[in-house]
Amino acid sequence: MSTISLKRNLSRSRLFKENFFRVLVSLSIFFALGFILFVVFILFLQSRGALNLDLFRNFPSARPANAGIQSAIFGSIWVVGIAALVAVPIGIVAAIFLEEFINPNNRIAKIIDLNVRNLAGVPAVVFGMVGLAFIARGSLGWGFTVGTAALVLAMMILPVVIIVSRESIRAVPSSLRDGSLALGATQWQTVWRTVMPSALPSIATGAILSVSRAMGESAPLLLLGALAFVTYNPESLDSDYTILPLIIFRYASDAKEEFHAIAAATSLVLMAILFLMNLTAILIRDRSQRKA
Amino acid sequence: MGSGAVFSVVVTFLIIFSLIPTTIRFLQEVGTKVFGTSWGPLFEPATFGLLPLIIGTMWVVIIAVIVAVPLGLAAAIYMSEYAAPTTRRIVKPVVEVLAGIPTVVLGLFGLYFVNPELVQKYWPIGEPTAYTALGAGLVTGILILPIVATISDDAMRSVPGGLREAAFALGSTRSEVATKVVVGASLSGIMAAVILAVSRAFGETTVALMVAGSYAQLTLNPGDAMQTMASFIGFAGIGDQPVDSTGYRTIFFVGSMLFTITWILNIIALKVIKRFREVYE
Amino acid sequence: MNTENPSGVRINPATARASQEIRAAVPPQKKSNATNTNHAIFSLNDVSVSYGDFIAVSKVNMEIPSHSITAFIGPSGCGKSTLIRSLNRTNDLIPGAKVGGKIMYEGIDLYASDSDAVEVRRRIGMVFQKPNPFPKSIYDNVAFGPRVNYRQSKSELDGIVESSLKSAALWDEVKNRLKESALGLSGGQQQRLCIARSLAVNPDVILMDEPCSALDPIATMKIEDLMIELAEKYTIVIVTHNMQQASRVASYTAFFSTEVNPDNDRRTGQLVEFDDTRNIFLNPTDPRTEAYVTGRVG
């Protein structure tokens, strides 16, 4: 009865553009997923039998059959662990200070904020150079040791910890703070008893992600002796050391093909460790968001 | 307690103080030789022409951008404009996992797969060897893709829904709303994403070292091995250069160039982001 | 002083005066344009709209006449906005939104599987509560719809932009600054720009979701005059919180209210009464309608 129609009335070119575009953008996600799976697949292929417990039991050796990564595992634990112990508390405390106790319009506060954000974007290798100039050599003269490595990594992840913690604290609604202050609590009590518990899951997520980033870093410690051939686990801050990313680098660059398999296997181990850490962080974030 | 905050300022000063004096000493010693065309500061006789390093860096960065920007933007548009909330909750972690792959593993991928199976087999110009700038560029591109994707996605999601509703109400298709309204409205955020990604590509050491090699040759063919500023620092830093030797000073000179470039790019990006946030808040 | 009312409840004198103003303002029955038969352009049969398991509005039956202004009035939360958005499938954009029953437009089911939402929205345009011009120039805002939908030469486009802006009573104010950003206009001008933008694609219907609630009284007046003018060529459906506005511009009015669902204590919107505007305000049938328009409730 009516002369109009509501059927699709797109010109050929519009319809084509719409479908083509839709396919294109979906493909990009498939590419990302496919790439991850493909990398894991290639690594499995290349690791040809090197993925076994001997990998963890053995130390680096000139003979591929006896080579393992134990010193690198413990080296990573030492270096990243100490870096986290230094950077995370300082970062959180600095974030509390900057968010709760300083007027944001203060000129100095703005400069510090800009500074921290810029530091988060500095290439990792530059931190290695600073470590080389002032910590390994120069004023501190600690040499190529666990202590040097830990301090350099701490410098590197500190800005990120500060930024993430600040955002977590900022996300706590001011009504919570106001309520606590209205009951007569001091500002410090408010922060400690009200703001921090609320911001904690988010801060924890950020901290874990920062630490996992430190675990995967290779460039800065390249300059600080982590590529050395170390066949024992660290015993003190003064020990020589190596770390997982750099033992991968060492084995991958070796002329002997057999070492390449170990490099691939270690890559899978490293990725598994990082995946678990990130998964933990995401679960914490999800669980706290669901509660909210 | 404020010490933590001050610590970060201290770090910045340390960076600058480590770089500047050594750079000055380097320039005093080397001067105009940096305008040469041969880079071999660790050889005898040492040459200091920066051109090969600059070209090597540019090739890797440009190829990385060509890979990362279209793919990253497409992923961002998908996450922001097309994905249902449940789909998005699955897709976003995929991008985060991609971002979490360690650079050394990506370098391995470039060395074991991209160079031998892709570049060496299919690149028509010259004779690609086990190390190519093209391979390094491709892998670095995938490395920086998540930066483009997540920051662009954030920018697009902060475009008010009212603009989309208005465009739909005029009879637009979803792709038209995405490309003609949302992208335009979030353009400065997207630009900031690209600038940050470029800065990251400049600074990437491990991938360039493992995939593009350490041969600083002056060539225009990306299928050749090249050295970038960052990979030179990595390469030179492996050997323990005596403090204040020529090699040591060269490392710091190239380091200050790298630092300056990335610092400037980051400041520009942060300013763009700030202005973008002001518009939409 | 108490105004006469059947149930003997005391009425607040201020609202009583306001409602008397409304009754005085209702103009004589508007006759439709003789050359366009005033037929039912929308036919709603048992329509309900829900988001997930929340039913926003249910069991709506009404016929909306063409070439006139129909107003949806009622207290907050009664589903007027939800309903008007389902008239051009804007609700499709919200995940989990579902429409039950049938909405017929010129005899065709809006939600049939072969009805294309893009075509629906081209024919049934919408203006929103908060003016939302694109961050582009005035010209590009109005030209957006035609550029996307049709292919035309530059001079044709110029003509469309000019006539749309004239129809929206904005041309004289902006004709010398078409290339300037639309964001530099005042609120009232931006809303008229949004109307011009909708007109540019030559729709049959313009839906308006509280178009004046973000504007000052003078801007509101201009837009109300515009609406009455536009009703000669287009069908207009508006949602409004402002009863006086409904009585000033609308020929037909639909009054909605909420009902508490005994099962889950949630409120669902309902169409209470739909009639000529005069009848709704001067002679309502349902006591809930009377309570609302006389100011006792809402």
What report would you give on this structure?
The complex is a heterotrimer of chains A (292), B (281) and C (298). Chain A is mostly helical. Helix content of chain A is 72%, strand content 0%. Chain A has a single domain (53-291), classed as Orthogonal Bundle (MetI-like fold). The termini of chain A are far apart. Chain B is mainly α and 281 residues long. Chain B has one domain (3-279): Orthogonal Bundle (MetI-like fold), CATH 1.10.3720. The model of chain B has no long low-confidence stretch (mean pLDDT 90). By secondary structure, chain C is of the alpha/beta class. Chain C has 11 helices and 10 strands. Chain C has a 10-stranded mixed sheet, sandwiched between helices. The longest helix of chain C has 14 residues, at 154-167.
* CATH architecture designation of chain A: Orthogonal Bundle
Computed over alpha carbons, the radius of gyration of chain C is 20 Å
Number of separate domains of chain A: 1
Relative strand content of chain C: 15-25%
The CATH class of chain A:
Mainly Alpha
What structural class results from the helix and strand content of chain A?
A: mainly alpha
**What's the number of extended β-strand segments of chain C?**
10
Q: Span from first to last CA of chain A?
A: 54 Å
Residue-averaged pLDDT of chain C: 86
Number of helical elements of chain A: 11
- How big is the Rg of chain A? 25 Å
Largest sheet of chain C: 10 strands, mixed
Largest interface by Cβ-Cβ < 8 Å: A-B, 86 and 80 residues
Would you list the SSEs of chain C in sequence order as H and E? Answer: HEEEHEEHEHHHHEHEHEEHH
Low-confidence region ranges of chain A = none
Enter the CATH topology name of chain A.
MetI-like fold
* Span between termini of chain C: 21 Å
